[in-house]
């Protein structure tokens, strides 16, 4: 559980730093990097929800 929290924290830090980099330099590569971080964070959430759902289904059986 701690590893998941660390991953969420790292994704959040990645997004914030990317947006700060874009604010300073106005280089669109920073936005692509932030987009990648956002997509990876959403994928992590989706995988966690899927695992939670499967766990609940297996408990109900």
Task: Outline the structure in words.
This protein has helices spanning 2-25, 28-60. The longest helix has 33 residues, at 28-60. The mean pLDDT is 91. The chain has two helices and no strands. It is an all-alpha fold. It has one domain (1-60). α1 runs antiparallel to α2.
How are the elements arranged and paired?
Blueprint: H1 2-25, H2 28-60
Radius of gyration computed on alpha carbons:
16 Å
- SSE class: mainly alpha
Low-confidence stretches: none
Biggest β-sheet description: none
Distance between the termini: 25 Å
How much strand? Answer: under 5%
Keywords: Membrane, Transmembrane, Transmembrane helix
Features:
mainly alpha; elongated; 61 residues
Quick recap:
This protein has 61 residues and is mainly α. It has helices at 2-25, 28-60.
